[in-house]
Design goal:
Elements: H1 4-19, H2 31-48, E1 50-55, E2 60-65, H3 68-76, H4 78-86, H5 94-101, H6 105-108, H7 113-124, H8 129-156, H9 165-180, H10 200-208, H11 215-219, H12 231-261, H13 272-319, H14 328-346, H15 357-367, H16 370-377, H17 383-392, H18 396-404, H19 406-414, H20 424-432, H21 452-464, H22 468-477, H23 513-519
Antiparallel strand pairs: 1-2
Length: about 525
């Protein structure tokens, strides 16, 4: 077994990696808001198999057919659809989603940035109803981010960043406040029922299991600071290193045995006796270390396969539950249990008897790359606060305060710094169009149709559900000539989910102004036409 000091350091590393997975703060809409807007689109589709698209400026509403396979998927996999709508805020985990999937390629190190991930998810999840439901939900999340971040960035001054630190605070406060003004009557029944049952294996294959040379291996770049604490990247790399050592051992054994078997009695250049002695010595020296590595590799496999379920549980505890609270204590318990049961052994402490602590330590040091060893050496005693501050610019207590009572901090943070300055009273009046001048009437909600960003989110969520032929029909109906050349309207243009006006980068409906302006409401500073 490992010496206590080494086991303690590895447990600290395991806990620190899970600690950093606590609340992500750069979502354009909070997860409950994402699901609320998506549910409006789904209910429209399921009532009669069509979605209604108002033609702005005319009073006309046109209807477009959702294909039968999508309707089957939404009926059979409504909970999986909602899980998909949580998107990269939850899968493969909060940290990977925030640092790898949301940013543009220059920041994440992923060629084509967010769109590469959207294409990957679309291609990796098949036509099985539950998988189809999840992938449609994932693209629906991207549709919400496209319009939500354009709106939020207007007030924060820029996409989410820790420098300057007040940018992050403004994102948290404004997004959280909008979430608080959702109609509570709509958040009942099975609204908070999301599930990865039936799709967790595919989430593992598509978003966690980064085998060397795979598409996911390229989407989780190992030479990027964005993946320093990504559990899928971290432990896929460790597993690949172990696999290489294990294969090399068995290949060399097989080569020696082949040479022994081919050694003829009259071939004086070959000695079966000497080769057999060499094989015995090689096995004696390496068998136990390789068996240890096999245990270690298998523990990584087991832990990574469970990661989608753990990420889902953490997401529910932190930001998608009927109590509408950020339950960091529950998230702590989930992650600590995972660390104790899995992450410790994944970091190099599998249950194995047959080697000394020193020998195991040498193996860990040899296999574990420097970019993992460095964070382990840098760990502090206050793991959660230290790592949350590094990830969000705030301690857990500060973050919880802003998330719990954004109304209390609204005027304090939204009237300073970069971006449009605005008071809570004016935001209520001019944007949400509600009568409350502060937060004196918490039950007063806003109508999503009155805020262009939320209206556009719902419309885009409906378009995600349509097949290309119906998107083309919509364009023709509005006098356009372009055609959708992708399998879904949200593919091919959103190179970052954090940025603004991404539709300008190639969204088919934005290619012709007369089409776009009949479907989507203009956002402030949107000069697409």
């Amino acid at each position: 077994m490992l010496a206590k000091s080494r086991k303690a350091r590895l447990l600290a590393a395991a806990l620190s990696i899970t600690a950093v997975l606590l609340p992500s703060v750069a979502a354009a809409w909070k997860p409950t808001s994402h699901v609320y807007f998506a549910e409006i689109a789904v209910k429209d589709a399921l009532d009669d198999g069509y979605v209604e698209i108002p033609v702005l400026g005319t009073g006309e509403v046109r209807r477009y057919k959702v294909d039968d396979d999508t309707l089957v998927a939404l009926r059979a996999g409504r909970a999986q659809y909602r899980a998909g709508v949580l998107g990269p805020d939850a899968y493969p985990d909060i940290l990977t989603g925030q640092q790898v999937i949301h940013p543009d390629g220059e920041e994440s190190g992923v060629s084509h940035g967010s769109d590469a991930w959207l294409e990957h998810v679309w291609n990796s999840f098949g036509d099985d109803p539950l998988q189809r439901a999840f992938r449609l939900g994932f693209l629906t999340h991207a549709a919400g981010d496209t319009y939500g971040h354009t709106f939020i960035n207007q007030f924060s001054g820029a996409p989410f960043t820790l420098d300057p630190p007040d940018n992050a605070i403004r994102h948290i406060v404004l997004e959280g406040y909008i979430d608080k003004r959702l109609p509570g009557s709509a958040l009942t029944g099975d609204f908070f029922t999301a599930s990865v049952a039936g799709v967790d294996g595919r989430i593992y294959q598509a978003m966690v299991d980064a085998r060397p040379g795979s598409a996911l291996d390229r989407l989780l770049p190992s030479a990027s600071s964005s993946t320093n604490y990504s559990v899928p990247r971290l432990f896929s790399t460790l597993r690949a290193s172990l696999d290489a050592d294990i294969r090399a051992y068995y290949d060399h054994k097989a080569d020696l045995q082949r040479r022994i078997d081919n050694c003829r009695w009259n071939d004086f250049s070959c000695s079966a006796v000497l080769l057999s002695a060499e094989l015995a010595g090689y096995v004696a020296l390496n068998a136990a270390p390789v068996t240890y590595k096999e245990y270690w590799r298998d523990d990584i496999d087991e832990g990574l396969r469970l990661w989608p379920q753990v990420s889902h549980q953490v997401a529910e505890a932190l930001f998608f539950n009927a109590e509408r609270k950020t339950d960091t204590e529950k998230a702590d318990r989930i992650l600590s249990d995972y660390a104790t049961r899995h992450l410790l052994s994944m970091a190099g402490a599998p249950s194995f008897i047959g080697l000394t602590a020193a020998a195991i330590g040498d193996i860990i040091d040899a296999v574990t790359p420097d970019w993992l060893l460095a964070p382990i050496r840098a760990l502090k005693a206050e793991l959660l606060d230290t790592l949350l501050k590094a990830a969000t610019g705030m301690t857990k207590a500060q973050l919880q305060a802003y998330l719990t009572r954004p109304d209390r901090y609204f005027d304090q943070v939204m009237t300073t710094g970069n971006g449009e300055h605005i008071t809570l009273a004016r935001f209520n009046r001019d944007y949400l169009q509600i009568s409350d001048t502060g937060y004196d009437n918490p039950s007063e909600s806003f109508d999503y149709r009155n805020l262009p960003a939320t209206y556009n989110t719902v419309v885009a969520s409906k378009l995600v559900l349509l097949p290309p032929a119906e998107i083309d029909r919509l364009i023709r109906d509005l006098g356009g000539s372009r055609r959708l050349e992708r399998p879904n309207v949200m593919l091919g243009f959103a190179h970052t989910l954090d940025g603004s006006v991404q539709w300008r980068s190639g969204m088919v409906l934005a290619a012709e102004c007369n089409v776009y302006r009949r479907v989507f409401k203009p956002l402030p500073r949107d000069e697409v036409c």
